[in-house]
Amino acid sequence: MKEELIVSGKHLPDIYPVLHLWHWEISLYLFLGGLAGGILFFAAYFYITGKEKEMPTTVKWATIIAPLALAIGLSSLLYDLHHKLYFWRLFTTVRFTSPMSWGAWTLMIIFPLSLIWIGTYMKEMFPNWNWKFKFLNDFEALAIKYRLSIAWLMMALSIILAVYTGILLSAFNARPLWNTSILGPLFLVSGFSTGLAAIMWLSNDEHERKVLSRIDIFFILTELFLIVHLFMGFMAGTAVKLEAFHLFMGGAFTISFWVFVVLLGLIFPVTLEILELKGFHIPKWVPPLLILFGGLMFRFVMVDAGQITRFLY
Amino acid sequence: MRYAMAIDTKKCVGCADCVVACQTENNVPHGYCRDWIVENVEGTYPSLDMKFQSERCNHCENAPCVRCCPTGASHIAEGGIVLVTHDDCIGCGACVEACPYDARYMHPEGYVDKCTFCIQRVDKGENPACVDVCPTYCLHFGDLDDPNSNVSKALKDRSWYVLAPEAGTEPQLYFLR
Question: B23-32 as b/e, with b when 16 or more CB fall inside 10 Å?
């Protein structure tokens, strides 16, 4: 019998710990990016479908969160950069093969776009609002005139924003846990669901919350479906995929994933949402809080666990 | 031109001279290294088999680190050498995550650093520092397109393997067995 006794890896005590390079900054950003993407998508969607009056929180009020979330997320990304003063290098080139480059450019457009969107509603939300300068008033009039075009652009970009938070990870073939094409759709669905949760938390309108809740139920069920597929893919995969699978099945991330993400972050809130639609009284902050918590945990788990998995050679 | 390196695992004794030579030649900050030794012991006592491998960046032809770099700091230079332009690097770490060989590290000054095949020496027609210093002559460097280069001659009549070919990176470090 020939068995492997010792396989000493690299003797790099100073490099190995450093390789675990991405920490809370990245997880937080991926969460906030998806959240902002979700909020802006539904604002644009309900505007385009002509439900502006029916869904005031979705189209107007909740969008204020989006640029705030992006600002916090981008600050945390900047904080994570090791060569901070060189961050502008992102915008001196376009790299089609790099999801990070796609994301940087998307953010470059969607961030000001979300501010313009809010700007067009400032006078409706705050009747005493005064832009002070004439050029701002002129700009507002122009933006309101083209609000429909802005909505279409914002809808497209919000999808790219939310998908890219997943593709950013799935593009790394060296990390088997991430390297699955289902991660893009999964992060998209999860991001949109957290966006819906945030809007639902803000909204006081019974009808609006019901509409959002129905959509959210669909998104959470889709997310659960995609998670099952993710793990089916790992189970049918090669040794490195199985290693990734075992991190979640008895490994270090079992509890944090299945209890905090799936049970508390998805199954429990979706059950509450269904019960609420059936007429039970559920405090309105409970399902959104759980969904937001689950979404954040999901990104922490994926970013952390992915960096452990690697090629075996 | 296609620079590559052949590492004779039968001759390597794991002395780590290559590691120290690299650190000296390239001013690698204390505690870090661009190349390293992997030691494998296989078998059941008393029938044991030991193998040393001197490893470094594989200077992949299909380099995932170059593909994912958002600024183009990671690039493939002439001769297929994968390099990082320090002043273009924002230190995002994407390439570190993308490398199946874990060959990159974050330099304390904020940019990502890695083996350059000692391009400053290679440009002058010299060997990388690790190759020149190796006491057992187990490292062979040169141009694969030149049949008379050291690496071509080393690969000619020996069987070899590359690391993680399943990663699809087309690595240019050849290990002689």
Answer: bebbebeeeb
Smallest CA–CA distance, residue A112 to chain B, in Å, is: 21
Q: Is the pTM of this model over 0.80?
A: yes
Angle, vertex CA A178, rays to CA B102 and CA A6, nearest 5: 45
How far apart CA A146 and CA A301 sit, in angstroms, is 41
Q: How many CB pairs under 8 A join A and B?
A: 140
A6·B43 Cβ contact <8 A: no
B46 Cβ contact partners less than 8 Å away, ≥ 6 residues apart: none
Picking from B37, B76, B97 by the largest number of A CB atoms within 10 A of its own CB, the best residue to mutate is B97
Which residue bears the tokens 């309105």?
Answer: A284
* Full residue range of the structural domain in which residue B119 is found: 3-176
Three-state secondary-structure class, residue B89: coil
Orientation of helix A286-306 relative to helix A268-277, angle to 10°: 160
Q: How many domains does chain B have?
A: 1
- If one counts every other C-beta atom within 10 angstroms of the C-beta of residue B104, the result is 25
The DSSP symbol for B28 reads P
**Separation of alpha carbons A272 and A294, rounded Å:** 14
Task: Give the single-character DSSP code of A92.
Answer: G
φ and ψ at residue A197, rounded to 5 degrees: -60, -45
Query: For A181-226, how does the pLDDT look when each residue is reduced to its tens digit (9 = 90+)?
Result: 999 999 999 999 999 999 999 999 999 999 999 999 999 999 999 9
Contact B32, B14 (CB under 8 A): no
Report the alpha-carbon distance of residue A309 to residue A313 in Å, rounded. Answer: 13
ipTM: 0.89
* B71 to A92: CB separation less than 8 angstroms, yes or no: yes
The CATH number of the domain holding residue B72 is 3.30.70.20
Cis? peptide before A17, omega within 30° of 0: no
Give residue-wise pLDDT tens across range B129-144: 999 999 999 999 999 9
Full set of structural domains in chain A with CATH? 18-306 (1.20.1630.10)
Handedness of CA A24, A26, A29, A35 (dihedral sign): negative
Q: Kindly give the pairing relationship between strand B139-143 and strand B112-113.
A: unpaired
- Give the contacts of A146 (CB within 8 A, at least 6 positions apart): none
